[in-house]
């Protein structure tokens, strides 16, 4: 009997796993506004070459540079836990495991890619990184990572979050980053918004535009993104690779793997290495869990769409609710994204992975039960995976089936206590997004010749 | 080269170490208001017998019950870190290690004793625990622990903190505790204060009175304290015991051990097991670090005094600034205590341990350097130990002396970001407590016949 399964530092994976190598069909290319594939060179204005190469790579294994591994060792390998107390509370015969990514200094899985991105940029002679952040998880991760390699970090933080979540801002500043409430008057994009709406609360779309504009206009500055892109998911696969080694240590293996899915890096990080086994015939079910209020995979269309609301990014073939879809103000900020990783989308399209949507109240109920049994207060995003696991564990109890379930505890909820507060006070509600509204925003998908 | 030194769960200590067994002189007894030693039976009104026995014990080793160990395994053994990046930033030849107690679900070392106290109370048939909390670290720890053993927890939280730190309150409630802003109108002590000061912001002294009153007046309810008492320090010795095993694994041993010191459980927890080695001739220096604004050991008197401001507790022989000493509103709430553990005090009196006081700004400077090099944002209390370690590491650099330094990273600062915010904005200041003010409050020490 054990609670934690620990890997020694010497067992930390040396390579990332690139799921593209095992996909039956090559990923659809990114397209420009003219409908033609975007050439890699076009991305060099804001990304270092090494990351552009990773974005396009079909190699199965890509080496993790030693300086990146050296920083990751501050918290990795992360522990795999057996959730004995949660199992007992559910009276389930299922064995429930979770990979605890909340142990990173920034409190989530995000630094796994932030550290890699900061390092590749530092090697390319880049002195500054610009990025956007909503609630602040990604901004914190990049601030921390920039500090490790002497890179200045500028974060455009959605103004309403900047004002409502001052502690995430303080954390970024403690790690030396500059944080601005977006829209700012420092960029053309920001000034254009402020001219019309001086009191604009900001949006992720505007903040992305500001960060991209700054990166594109300065030679010493690049842009960094916290999810969606192939290289970001690649850097997260260290999670699933470690989990596989940890299961080997105890002679178990998951029947099902669950992770929250917003942009896809959380899910891809833990699930893709198991997909490698599935590709060679092993039975394992991979389940992306999303909110019913932002049901990209379960109710969206599979189509070419922009990654941002303003249409500045290349077109990506993905499940989307439409780039001007406005998800309700649920508390899992990391899952409020209209689209999804192209890789996750294509695997779902090909029925190689599964998806389920859960309503907000069920996720907080699950999170509170988890906190009261396993001790850790989970991030609202992670609560989605917990809710789906609890559903399955209850099914196992009814069927008397002792399945092995694994989920990614992607982060802690220390900066989300006001959400738990509102849940406990009965002030939260469910938002099921009406099908007609989705159909309406899907009518605005870009019209590209030949698609 | 390694970053973390991990112990497997099977190596978690099975016994707590009782420093009393190795003290050259037996500890001075607790006294009642009449100046006579307090009999153990007097403590049974609010503590279970097992804890009263531990409070009085002279046994060197006391077994940790298996159900307590089972909960501690959720985060223990905690990792020992080598702070390579901090060493590099300081260009010091010193080897700096820290024991990372921030990994507990409550974010500090406090659950080590909370779990033990909750279990012993549950074994004694107690259904509820009452306690007080200032900033909320201890209240969180007891809420978590109570949940693990089916014990209801009521927390009297100092009203000003209740209003200013809503997230610590939310966390306690997420773990199922009831939290009240003290003074309340639920106790005689609270009503008496409110009758005179309806708008009282509360104080730790008032909150203690309310919790003790509730515990003393209800047969199903006991009281729990988060520091100061012998049994609390005993439960924390698992920290130092683990650290010793971890140093054995790598063939190193500290020349100096540092910990923040408020009530003493943080310091006693990591230092006492090393005192056992010192008692048999090993060279190791144990350094308690306190704020210059609340310099109990370095500027207080060694005298009998009350543990609370209202004079409801037994008299303890300790270093004290006087029970009506009002420390300035520094941000390390856990170190704002007028007295100190009787055991720590006596060891200091006998010159078997050392103490140093550091000013507030130096502690935050140290904390920010630590965050930017090692990644983890430390609690303001922990910043005190870091500041003292940095002083010593700089001394090592000047002298070219490669000392091995260990400190207790007692907690993370996730709920203290507003303090870092104010520090970064240049809004914090140092408070050196003037000697005359200390002498004034020392004039109010209790007059006991025969002392």
Structure description:
Chain A has 451 residues and is α/β, with parallel strands linked by helices. Chain A has 18 helices and 15 strands. In chain A, the strands form four sheets. Chain A has a seven-stranded mixed β-sheet with strand order 1-4-5-15-10-11-14, with helices on both faces. A four-stranded parallel β-sheet of chain A has the order 8-7-6-9, sandwiched between helices. In chain A, strands 2-3 form a two-stranded antiparallel ribbon. In chain A, helix 2 (66-72) packs antiparallel against helix 4 and helix 8 (188-196) packs antiparallel against helix 9. The mean pLDDT of chain A is 94.
Structural class of chain A: alpha/beta
Q: In which order are the strands of the major sheet of chain A placed?
A: 1-4-5-15-10-11-14
- Strand runs of chain A, count: 15
Main sheet attributes: strand count, strand direction, barrel closure of chain A:
7 strands, mixed
Q: Taking Cα atoms only, what radius of gyration of chain A do you get, to the nearest Å?
A: 21 Å
CA distance, first residue to last residue of chain A: 56 Å
Q: Any descriptors?
A:
7-stranded mixed β-sheet, 41% helix, 451 residues, globular, 18 helices, 16% strand, Rossmann fold, alpha/beta, 4-stranded parallel β-sheet, homodimer
Blueprint (SSEs and pairs):
The structure is a homodimer of 451-residue chains.
Chain A: E1 4-5, E2 15-17, H1 49-56, E3 61-63, H2 66-72, E4 80-82, H3 84-90, E5 95-100, H4 111-123, E6 128-133, H5 137-148, E7 152-158, H6 159-164, H7 166-174, E8 178-182, H8 188-196, H9 204-217, E9 221-223, H10 230-236, H11 238-250, E10 256-260, H12 265-279, E11 285-291, H13 296-299, E12 301-306, E13 315-320, H14 342-349, E14 354-358, H15 360-374, H16 380-399, E15 404-409, H17 417-424, H18 435-442
Parallel strand pairs in A: 5-15, 6-7, 6-9, 7-8, 10-11, 10-15, 11-14
Antiparallel strand pairs in A: 1-4, 2-3, 4-5, 12-13
Helix pairs in contact in A: 1-10, 2-4, 3-15, 4-5, 4-10, 5-7, 8-9, 10-12, 11-12, 15-16
């Amino acid at each position: 009997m054990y609670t934690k399964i620990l890997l020694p530092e010497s067992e930390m994976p040396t390579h990332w796993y690139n799921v593209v190598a095992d996909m039956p069909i090559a990923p659809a290319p990114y397209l420009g506004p003219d409908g033609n594939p975007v050439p890699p060179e076009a991305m060099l204005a804001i990304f270092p070459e090494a990351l552009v190469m990773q974005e396009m790579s079909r190699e199965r294994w890509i080496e993790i540079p030693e300086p990146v591994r050296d920083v990751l060792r501050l918290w990795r390998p992360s522990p795999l836990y057996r959730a004995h107390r949660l199992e007992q509370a559910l009276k389930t015969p299922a064995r429930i495991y979770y990979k605890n990514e909340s142990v990173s200094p920034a409190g989530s899985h995000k630094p796994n890619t932030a550290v890699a991105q900061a390092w590749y940029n530092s090697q390319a002679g880049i002195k500054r990184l610009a990025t956007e952040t909503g609630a602040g998880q990604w901004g914190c991760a990049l601030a921390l990572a920039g500090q490790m390699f002497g890179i200045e970090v500028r974060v455009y933080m959605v103004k309403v979050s900047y004002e409502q979540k001052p502690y995430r801002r303080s954390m970024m500043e403690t790690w030396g980053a500059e944080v601005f409430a977006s829209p700012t008057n420092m960029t053309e994009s920001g000034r254009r918004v402020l001219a019309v709406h001086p009191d604009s609360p900001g949006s992720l779309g505007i903040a992305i535009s500001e960060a991209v504009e700054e990166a594109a206009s300065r030679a010493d500055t690049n842009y960094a993104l916290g999810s969606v892109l192939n290289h970001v998911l690649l850097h997260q696969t260290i999670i699933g690779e470690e989990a596989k080694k940890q299961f080997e240590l105890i002679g178990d293996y998951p029947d099902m793997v669950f992770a929250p899915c917003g942009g896809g890096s959380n899910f891809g990080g833990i699930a893709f290495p198991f997909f490698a086994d599935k590709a060679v015939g092993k039975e394992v079910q991979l389940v992306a869990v999303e909110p019913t209020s932002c049901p990209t995979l379960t109710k969206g269309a599979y189509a070419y769409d922009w990654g941002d609301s303003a249409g500045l990014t290349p077109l990506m073939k993905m499940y989307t609710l439409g780039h001007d879809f406005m998800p309700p103000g649920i508390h899992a900020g990391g899952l409020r994204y209209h689209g999804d990783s192209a890789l996750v989308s294509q695997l779902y399209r090909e029925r190689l992975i599964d998806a389920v949507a859960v309503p907000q109240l069920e996720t907080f109920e699950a999170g509170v039960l988890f906190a009261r049994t396993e001790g850790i207060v989970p991030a609202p995003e992670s609560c989605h995976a917990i809710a789906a696991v609890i559903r399955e564990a209850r099914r196992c109890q009814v069927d008397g089936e002792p399945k092995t379930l694994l989920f990614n505890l992607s982060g802690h909820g220390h900066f989300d206590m006001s959400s738990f507060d509102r849940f406990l006070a009965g002030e939260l509600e469910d938002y099921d997004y009406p099908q007609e509204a989705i159909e309406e925003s899907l009518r605005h998908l870009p019209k590209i010749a030949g698609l």
